[in-house]
Each structure stands twice: as structure tokens, then as C-alpha cells.
Amino acid sequence: MQSFEHLYNSRADYLYFMCQRLEESETRIESLFFDVWRRIHRDLIHLGEETEEKWLCRKLVEAHRQLHRRAPVEEVSTEAGLLAAVVSLGLEYRWALVLRECGSFSYLELGEILGVPERTVRSRIARARAQVRRYLEAHE
Amino acid sequence: MSLVDDELVSAHQDGELTREEQAAVSGLLQSAPEWRARLEDFQADSEAFRKLPIRELSKQTRTRVFQLARDDAEAGSDRRRVPRYKRRWMLLAAMVVPVAFTLLFFEYPGDTSRLYLKSDDLQLEARRTVEPSEFVQSKSWQSPALLGTYQADVEPRLMIQVDSEEPQPQTVQVTVEYDFNGDETVDRTEVYQPCKLNEFKGWERFRPKLQSVEGKFGNFDSGTVTLTMRAAGTIKTSGTPGEMVLPYLDLRSAKESSEHS
Question: pTM of the entire structure?
């Protein structure tokens, strides 16, 4: 089994990058990053049941869901910009889009990470892209 | 554009279309300017999203992560390796499964009756014996006293799960004896075809067919069913080593039935 330190050294930048694409405010990015590593530390014994990248992204999604339950975003962002548009998406759509764009997972792999059928992933990504486009056009 | 159109354009961008869809979308992208424009917008957004600026991780963040991990470990978070949602499901399953099991077995009069071989449960009382016969080992399970009405249109079925404890293949044979009125005489005997176990480690499941039958079925009136598994070597059985489907309507425990009434 990999050590926590080794995993952190090799994957911290990747997960920090993902956190910066899922959340906009610095506070929430930091919270998410800490939460996901605490979760990884707790569940490290289960690493190896699937590929490392998929497992880490599953932990990221779990931590993100937990963060939103614990501290939901009360105000919807009205700022212009692509990141604001992505952060305005519902969580299911945001995960599908961000993991696809930044993680380069196939729809099948995304379905396994998110626990939904491949067809649902395809639909969520398309809806997310269309919604981002609408947001950007409305804020031009 | 409609959602379906967006879905096709989006999946085309990701190379996730089927061959037929790909052919159709490629044609549309050549002939319909709005489809081309939509694809270009999606592609541009994706490209821009990936190129958004990234902040670097600080050493302080690393220190904080390791501190939190240490704190969690000291606080005994190791005990919570099973995630909370899983623990909730496990707890729920632990409560629901025995209830459902009991209800299925005793409360549905229309359900085909089944007896489950258990080491020490209410379905069948264990009475494991080693008989001085030509068989190296035998194991028996006997039901509690039963009440039930014979249902002629259902075939009895048997499933067993066993494994050889020896490194060579061996044979297991099952005999089922029915005493319908509890007078300790056998009213019906079913002998099932022998099951050949392989030499490999791991449970093997069998649904043996009837080889011979003596006696007829009758209604259960405080009677019992006894299943005996005989092997020419040592065998092992799991916690629930088998299941019998019996041609009875409303099969129930005589003891529980008298308690309820």
C-alpha cells in the first residue's frame, strides 16, 4: 500500500488544480482540499481497488458533496467569467464537466466515479456545456 | 439548439459517439452552420477552461494537511474506515434482512415454502451427527415441527453449497426424509443424485435432481423434514449451506403457530 506522504507528494498538485476548477472562492478551495486529503488519509486502505486517479476523484467528489452539505453556498455568483459560469452549475453537472475537461476521463470512467450510467454522464456534460454557454452569453 | 442536438455535439467533441451517430453528426456539421458554430463555442469554452490560471500549492498547506491527518488519526478516525453512508446501509441491512427473511418464510401463505439449512436458526434446527456407516462423514439438519398443506403443482427443489476439505475430488449425496405427523416414522424418502466436488478450494453449488423416491407427500401435522448430506471424505458447509423448496402452502412452525393462537 502506498504511504500517505508518497501519495500527497505525487498527487497534491493535481487535486489542488481540480479543487480550483470546482470552487471559486479561496476559502472554499482550501476547505475542499483539506477535506479531500483527510478523507484520503482515512480511506487509504481501500486504494488499489481501482486506478489511483479514479479513486482520488471519487474521494474529491465525496468531499465536495460533504462540503456543500456542511456549508452550502448561499449566494449564486453573478460575476462574469468562465469559472463563475462553471461554479454556477449544480453539483452533478459540475462534477461531470470538470472531471471530463480536467481529468480527461471517458464517459464510462466518469459513470463509474459518479455512480451513474454512461448515458447520464453524456447528458449531464451536454447540459453543463449548454448552461455555461448561456451564462457567458448573458454576462457578455 | 435542442438538448438532444447539444448532446450529440458535446459527445462528438469528446469522441464519445457511436459509429452511426458519428456519421450523422459529421454530415450535419458540414451542412448546418448552426451545428458548426455550436461545436466551435463548446470547443472554445473547453480550451479556455483548461487554460484558466492555477495557484501554486504552498508549503503551509502541506503542513496543515499532514497536521489534520495526524489529528484525525489521534482522534481515532481509523475506526471510521467504513464510510458513514456505508455504515448506515450496513445497519439498515442488518435490521431489514432478518425481518424480511422471517416474513418471507412464515407470513406469506401463498409463497412456495422453503427451508433454509442453518447451523442454528429457526428455519431448521441443527442436528449434526456422524453416522457409523461406510461414509466418512455425514451431516444432518432437521426442521422444527411443521404445519402445512401439500401443494401438488409445485416440484420440490434442492440447492446445496459445499466444498471438499481434501485435495482430491469427492462425492456428496443428499437424502431427505419426511415424517408428516411427528410419529418418528419416515413417510417419504427422497434420494438425490450424487454431486461431484472438484479438488479446488471454494464453495461449489449444486441443484441435484431426484434419483429415487419412496412414499408420497402428505400434509404436515407437527411433522419434520430431515436432510442428510453424506460424503465419501470430509466436507465443509457454509453458514447457509442450502435451501429446499417444498411443495407446501403456508408452511409454518407448529410451535409458533400454537403460540400465536
Answer: 0.55
